[in-house]
Amino acid sequence: MLFKLAQHIFVVTPCMLSSCSIINAQQARIINNNYKNIKLKLLNANAAILFNKMFRAKQLKPDYINIRINGKTPQDKKTTANAIRFRINQEIKFLYRKKQHLNQRLYYLHLEDAHQYNGMLQHVQEYIDEQISRLVDNLYQKFNKNKKN
User: Fold this and answer.
1) CA 49 to each of CA 36, 42, 96, 116, 129: distance values in angstroms, whole numbers, following the listed order
2) What is the pLDDT of residues 105-134, one digit of tens each?
3) Which of 17, 80, 114, 117 is most buried, by the most CB atoms less than 10 A from its CB?
4) DSSP conformation class of 32
């Protein structure tokens, strides 16, 4: 059970009725923001990986890649295509490293918060996940619109 009174949040779980945790509202806000920010970064990295893999499969050039080679011979076109493919592959590798790092940060944050705030973390995560799912749905709708074009 989660009770909000003025400046404090009281957390009471059935298995811990004897020990009631009192958490300052400022502390709860910090937990909320840390978890939400890391989770959003992780989901954005997943979307970017999907986006880059789609461009690689269709052999298209994303807007963020600016490679210019003078000349219009077939060798120059092949060099440009290879440079674009290399750049996309490097971007995907970077995004996978970023995803791994964010997963690790999220895991350690979860462990720390679960230890510090016994019964409250589950309620906070449910609330944040509802907010994030709405944002991610909008992100993937935009992605699907761009994918069709």
Assistant:
1) 20, 11, 8, 34, 21
2) 999 988 888 777 777 777 777 888 888 888
3) 117
4) H
